[in-house]
Design goal:
71 residues; mainly alpha
């Protein structure tokens, strides 16, 4: 919920403003930085899921589905 409040509160002007935080990527705006961070996080979650599956544990997808079924 907190993330939605923060991201939802960003104006179009702010989202399209240049971001100078030092995170490389093809889109130098705040939007590009947010997209890059989301992609990066998803990439690592996929890696963790593959490692968990190889070790015989529930994958991150299975854990996610189970958590949403319980709520």
């Amino acid at each position: 919920v907190y993330k939605r409040q923060v991201l939802g509160g960003l104006s179009d002007e702010r989202v399209l403003a240049p971001h100078t935080g030092g995170i490389p990527g093809p889109d130098p705006t705040v939007r590009g930085t947010i997209e890059g961070l989301c992609w990066h996080e998803a990439y690592h979650l996929g890696q963790i899921g593959l490692i968990r599956a190889e070790l015989g544990y529930a994958t991150t997808e299975e854990l996610f589905r189970k958590a949403h079924e319980e709520s």
